[in-house]
């Protein structure tokens, strides 16, 4: 890329600086002042440029030197990403802590990926020297963690004749593992890593459609509001409603290959929680350590706002990189509202006209550009991979009509709306079954029918309509009291309560129920709906609602989720049969007493 | 440079002063200003441009006369001199003594802004602090290193609650070893006196550092105060290995001062006139709490945030709730019913409770019983609503039981004496006592083992 140029600072206004730098380019990285902090050009005014700094500008003075680096913000892509924790501009936080102690210093120059470490590289067998090789082709593999094989690809910008390819052996990131001569005769030395500018989506051959649901192990998500692999989802909710928990649960339990968790403007301790707890967890799908497939981007709320804006792109670029290797990647962004606020703050300082609540007019288009990078694709290397993006949204005052929530709602396919009322009653996950939606139920239904049970789609609808009836009947009760309801209606209220407590509520902290396999999900749903149906029959036969509601078996049904784990579905099935037979006994009692009466 | 005084003030308004024609001024640096009567004021550079400098004046810009204003750039950032001698002292918002004793000189000057704690250097907070208050310990437990604000409103007893927490907080089984940093922004003289007397009565004055800005002190100084106070707290925690409890009151006054200055600067407002960066600004303060790996001390924060017009969705409590690790919410309704402390448990939350309680920390049943109490209280509130529509007599027997439970819960579990210091075991036993009025089948959030151990069927069950 182009050579470095120098200039000087003209003005410092918090994280925004005005510099004199002839020939500066929008997006170009700059090094600033004696503190050597890093920033990015965001606007040009003649020979001056406006720069947003990724680090605190305290102590800088007008007149200090500035250096234009000639390239935009890039990330390093190669082995060593997984299990790492990086800041919003991909600086490695663990290494920084080792180097600099408890607090993050400014002006540190440190590579994102370890340059010393050797990786055992195995070249792709069928590649022949002299053959033509395309962008995205797989040069070989490196076992990055015990579970994840890192596929070393020809970078998207390179193709041509393979001149040579390194034999199996241990290599550091900087070693040349292949050389490719392009159509212009230029020779590219390929290493185990390459760089990519974060604001530029990585190319792929073509977009594909989603074909199967992401299994998160959370009943309200998988069974009621499914999200596809490669889909776009949002989790809006007021503070304390459970956004972070939902995201962490998805990070823990989903059947993705790679998980990228971006803490964008949120709490430091939440990332520590992931860092400390994941290594102790086992992936229910592979039985391997949970951290081996995970990487974290941490730009906490107290870290510079501008790097927060960058962090989403940094996370997304890494996600695309693993997608290009043929993996299903899930990226969690907590919270996209903080990202939007960073955008707003910079826009405000640049004097852009605010349109709604101080946000600039381009908020909607920036948001959709980020979400558009999610999707399932056919990669340049002709495999399939996907990026699923799930963004938390933090609406001020919990008001979903605010700009970030309302724009997001138009972009995504799956909307997990969290409710303060549910959270206040400790109904977790507090996903509201009225406001939430999924546009991909049909595709998910195909998967459930094929893999778990044909009745899934029907049972799901029945449960949702029972919940809708519950809302309706509760309104009546609140107007005129419970006496106005018929027995059948009061049984509907009981049924809905069973759906809520035995199916929807799922504590992340319950060891037995934190993850719920699709099989167990379906069993619980089936159990509750069967009980409701059979109960309805009993009611018509004259059984009192109260007797049914207070039947000891109801408490056991409510506890079933915590009594049997996902690998104990046989016992759960046994329990269900017990329940049914008990209800059958009741039924014959009522049926015979009714006969006797008539 | 710091010896040179410039008489180049060009404009002064709303706590901001513009100086032209001075070169080489660093962003964030400290400034000393002398006015026409020879009085000194303190300031900080908040915009540094070629030839133009914008200064935020902590004592405000009232009564400045541009021709007779002399400005000196001190060539250093705003800082606090730290030493063990901080304990027992009283300072103003920028760290100058206000106890008629000499300033601290024999220590190290530390910049008040600190730099962000590296998340990779943090330890997850998980040590249960017993405050002796049932609604906190039992349902919204505080742990060392947490930031747990009290959301309150005018006329509610947040100060008494904060003082009670300070008096009673300790790790179960340990003598109190907290050092206290008290940060008061825009408080009345009587509130400041209340705290001082409370510290003095419980004999902890020698373990307290106070930073006080009264209601009639300059608002701009409130912007520096929490940062100065936290510089002291971090020093005590991470240099001197103390467990530090930081009480900040009232963060709403802080946020209002921020709005005042932001408006004067012409910053684009987001909601209700507060600047868009209020969230980040508050986060810079609150995220200074925590536990750090390989350090023995900790910084725990209990800030008081008043909710303007009792509105929890007002930007100040709202943004605070998005940053802090939970909130203890006080209710006017309970207060009017004479319940002390009037903690409304429904919107209250402790996010760090989950790792600080249970078998090894408090008692095995703790997480589940807390959950069960919440579930029952939520149902009881529904029954209360229903009773207010159709009358309590019309309720079913089941709903009647909920009503009785709610009444008992408010009076006996929420309500307690200002000097009543309940152990966590007492709190949990009380919870079981209240829940035992329900049959076992109704308690599905606790385990069957819990029921076998603690449910008092027979003696209370209806
Ligand atoms: N699925 C869940 N299971 C158990 N507890 C939960 C669950 N979701 C949320 N919580 C509780 O709610 C608290 C707040 O959740 P969190 O995800 O941090 O909220 P948000 O990110 O929306 O502010 C958590 O600390 C936890 O106590
Ligand atoms: Mg959160």
Description of the structure:
The complex is a heterodimer of chains A (about 600) and B (about 450). Chain A is an alpha+beta fold and about 600 residues long. Chain A folds into 4 domains: about 5-70, Elongation Factor Tu (Ef-tu), domain 3 (Beta Barrel); about 85-100 and about 115-195, RNA polymerase II/Efflux pump adaptor protein, barrel-sandwich hybrid domain (OB fold (Dihydrolipoamide Acetyltransferase, E2P), Beta Barrel), CATH 2.40.50; about 210-440, P-loop containing nucleotide triphosphate hydrolases (Rossmann fold, 3-Layer(aba) Sandwich), CATH 3.40.50; about 455-595, Bovine Mitochondrial F1-ATPase, ATP Synthase Beta Chain, Chain D, domain3 (Orthogonal Bundle), CATH 1.10.1140. Helices cover about 35% and strands about 25% of the residues of chain A. Chain A is built from 16 helices and 28 strands. In chain A, strands 8, 18, 19, 20, 21, 22, 25, 26, 27 and 28 form a 10-stranded mixed β-sheet that branches. In chain A, β23 (about 355) and β24 form a beta hairpin. In chain A, α12 runs antiparallel to α13 (about 520-540) and α13 runs parallel beside α16 (about 570-595). The longest helix of chain A has 29 residues, at about 570-595. Chain B has about 450 residues and is of the alpha/beta class. Chain B has 3 domains: about 5-75, Thrombin, subunit H; about 80-355, Rossmann fold (3-Layer(aba) Sandwich), CATH 3.40.50; about 365-460, no CATH class. Chain B contains 13 helices and 21 strands. In chain B, the strands form 4 sheets. In chain B, strands 9, 11, 14, 15, 16, 17, 18, 19, 20 and 21 form a 10-stranded mixed β-sheet that branches. The N and C termini of chain B lie far apart (about 80 Å). The mean pLDDT of chain B is about 95. Chains A and B meet through β1, α1, α4, α6 and α11 of A and β5, β11, α6, α7 and α10 of B. β1 (about 5-15) of chain A pairs antiparallel with β5 of chain B, so a sheet runs across the interface. Bound molecules: adenosine-5'-diphosphate and magnesium ion. Adenosine-5'-diphosphate sits at the interface of chains A and B.
């Amino acid at each position: 890329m182009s050579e470095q140029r120098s200039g000087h600072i003209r003005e410092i206004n918090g994280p925004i600086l005005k510099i004199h730098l002839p020939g500066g380019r929008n997006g170009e990285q700059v090094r600033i002042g004696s503190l050597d902090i890093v920033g990015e050009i965001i606007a040009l005014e003649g020979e001056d440029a406006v720069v947003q700094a990724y680090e605190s500008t305290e102590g800088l003075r007008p007149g200090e030197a500035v250096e234009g680096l000639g390239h935009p913000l890039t990330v390093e892509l190669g082995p060593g990403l997984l299990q790492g924790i990086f800041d919003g501009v991909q600086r490695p936080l663990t290494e920084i802590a080792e180097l600099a102690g408890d607090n993050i210093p400014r002006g540190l120059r440190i590579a994102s990926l370890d340059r010393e470490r050797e990786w055992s590289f195995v070249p792709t067998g069928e590649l022949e020297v002299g053959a033509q090789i395309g962008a995205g082709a797989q040069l070989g593999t490196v076992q990055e963690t015990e579970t994840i094989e890192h596929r070393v690809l020809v970078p998207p910008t390179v193709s041509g004749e393979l001149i040579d390819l390194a034999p199996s052996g241990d290599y550091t990131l900087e070693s040349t593992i292949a050389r490719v001569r392009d159509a212009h005769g230029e020779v590219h030395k390929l290493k185990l890593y390459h760089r990519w500018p974060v604001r530029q989506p990585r190319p792929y051959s073509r977009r594909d459609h989603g074909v199967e649901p992401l299994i998160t192990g959370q009943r309200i998500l998988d069974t009621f509001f499914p999200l596809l692999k490669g889909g776009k989802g949002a989790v809006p909710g007021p503070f304390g409603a459970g956004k972070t928990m939902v995201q962490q649960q998805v990070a823990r339990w989903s059947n993705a290959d790679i998980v990228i968790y971006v803490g964008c403007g949120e709490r430091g301790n939440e990332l520590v929680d992931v860092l400390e707890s994941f290594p102790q967890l086992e992936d229910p799908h592979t039985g391997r350590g949970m951290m081996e497939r995970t990487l974290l981007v941490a730009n906490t709320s107290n870290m510079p706002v501008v790097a927060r804006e960058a962090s989403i792109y940094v996370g997304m670029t890494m996600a695309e990189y693993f997608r290009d290797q043929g993996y299903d990647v899930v990226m969690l962004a907590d919270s996209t509202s903080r990202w939007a606020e960073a955008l707003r703050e910079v826009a405000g300082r640049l004097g852009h006209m605010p349109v709604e609540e101080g946000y600039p007019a381009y908020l909607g288009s920036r948001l959709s550009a980020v979400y558009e990078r999610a999707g399932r694709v056919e990669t340049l290397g002709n495999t399939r991979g996907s990026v699923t993006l799930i963004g938390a949204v933090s609406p001020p005052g919990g008001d979903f009509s605010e700009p970030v929530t309302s724009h997001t709602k138009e972009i995504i396919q799956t909307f997990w709306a969290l409710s303060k009322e549910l959270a206040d009653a400790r109904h977790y996950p507090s996903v509201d079954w009225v406001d939430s939606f999924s546009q991909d139920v049909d595709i998910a239904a195909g998967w459930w029918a094929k893999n778990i049970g044909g009745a899934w789609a029907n049972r799901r609808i029945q449960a949702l309509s029972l919940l809708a009836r519950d809302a309706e009947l509760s309104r009546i009760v609140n107007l005129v009291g419970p006496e106005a309801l018929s027995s059948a209606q009061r049984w509907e209220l009981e049924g809905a309560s069973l759906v809520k407590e035995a199916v929807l509520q799922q504590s992340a902290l319950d060891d037995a129920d934190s993850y719920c396999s699709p099989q167990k999900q379906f069993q619980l749903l089936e159990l509750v709906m069967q009980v409701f149906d059979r109960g309805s029959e009993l009611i018509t036969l004259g059984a009192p609602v109260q007797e049914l509601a207070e039947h000891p078996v109801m408490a056991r049904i409510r506890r079933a989720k915590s009594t049997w784990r996902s690998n104990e579905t046989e016992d759960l099935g046994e329990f269900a049969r017990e329940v049914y037979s008990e209800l059958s006994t009741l039924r014959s009692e009522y049926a015979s007493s009714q006969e006797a009466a008539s | 440079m710091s010896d040179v005084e410039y008489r180049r003030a060009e404009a002064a308004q709303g706590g901001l002063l513009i100086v032209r024609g001075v070169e080489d001024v660093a962003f964030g640096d400290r400034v000393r200003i002398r006015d026409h009567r020879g009085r000194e004021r303190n300031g900080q550079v908040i915009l540094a441009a070629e030839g133009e400098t914008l200064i935020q004046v902590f004592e405000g810009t009232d009564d400045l006369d541009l021709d007779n204003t002399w400005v000196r750039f001190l060539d250093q950032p705003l800082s606090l001199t730290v030493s063990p001698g901080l304990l027992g002292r009283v300072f103003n918002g920028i760290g100058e003594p206000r106890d008629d004793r000499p300033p601290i000189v024999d220590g190290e000057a530390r910049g008040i802004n600190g730099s962000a704690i590296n998340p990779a250097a943090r330890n997850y907070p998980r040590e249960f602090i017993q405050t002796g208050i049932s609604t906190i310990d039992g349902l919204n437990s505080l742990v060392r290193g947490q930031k747990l604000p009290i959301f309150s409103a005018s006329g509610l007893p947040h100060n008494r609650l904060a003082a009670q927490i300070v008096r009673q907080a300790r790790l179960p089984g340990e003598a109190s070893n907290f050092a206290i940093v008290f940060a008061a922004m825009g408080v009345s003289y009587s509130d400041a006196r209340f705290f001082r007397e409370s510290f003095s009565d419980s004999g902890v004055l020698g373990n307290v550092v106070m930073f006080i800005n009264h209601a009639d002190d300059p608002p701009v100084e409130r912007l520096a105060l929490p940062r100065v106070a936290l510089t002291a707290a971090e020093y005590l925690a991470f240099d001197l290995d103390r467990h530090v409890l930081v009480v900040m009151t009232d963060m709403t006054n802080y946020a209002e001062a921020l709005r005042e200055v932001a408006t004067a600067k012409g910053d684009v407002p987001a909601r209700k006139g507060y600047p868009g960066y209020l969230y980040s600004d508050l986060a810079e303060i609150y995220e200074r709490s925590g536990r750090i790996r390989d350090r023995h001390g900790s910084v725990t924060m209990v800030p008081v945030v008043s909710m303007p017009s009792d509105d929890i969705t007002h930007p100040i409590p709202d943004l605070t709730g998005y940053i802090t690790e939970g909130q203890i919410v006080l209710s006017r309704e309970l207060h009017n019913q004479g319940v002390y402390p009037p903690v409304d448990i429904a919107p209250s939350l402790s996010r760090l409770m989950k790792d600080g309680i249970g078998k090894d920390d408090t008692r095995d049943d703790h997480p589940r019983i807390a959950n069960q109490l919440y579930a029952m209280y939520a149902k009881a509130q529904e029954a209360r609503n229903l009773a207010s529509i159709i009358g309590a007599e019309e309720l079913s027997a089941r709903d009647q039981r909920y009503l009785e439970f709610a009444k008992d819960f408010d009076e006996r579990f929420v309500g307690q004496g200002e000097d009543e210091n309940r152990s966590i075991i007492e709190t949990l036993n009380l919870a079981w006592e209240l829940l035992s009025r329900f049959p076992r089948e109704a308690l599905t959030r606790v385990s069957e083992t819990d029921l076998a151990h603690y449910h008092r069927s027979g003696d209370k069950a209806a």
